[in-house]
Amino acid sequence: MRIPYEEGPYYLFRGALPIVANQWMFWTTYLTLYTWLKNKNFHFWVYQDFSYEWMKLLHMGFSFGCASMAAYPFYYIREMVDLWPKERGGHCTFNNNYR
Fold this sequence. Notes:
mainly alpha
């Protein structure tokens, strides 16, 4: 209980930047691209004889692929910070701050 009071609200969010950046980049890209594609290609199921469910599947698949590629560098940073082995002896290359 002493540490959050001494270090302030920043303590609650310490180390969260790689995770937040990864999730923000993925969901922002995914939802923006899906909405744009759905609005751009509405004529396929409104005026032509394409199934809405198939078009939705194509839009979701394409959006998911693009969002995954955009968010992967941030996921790699999170994995590097959280899962890669640290140095022995308590010595840290990054001055005890991997983030």
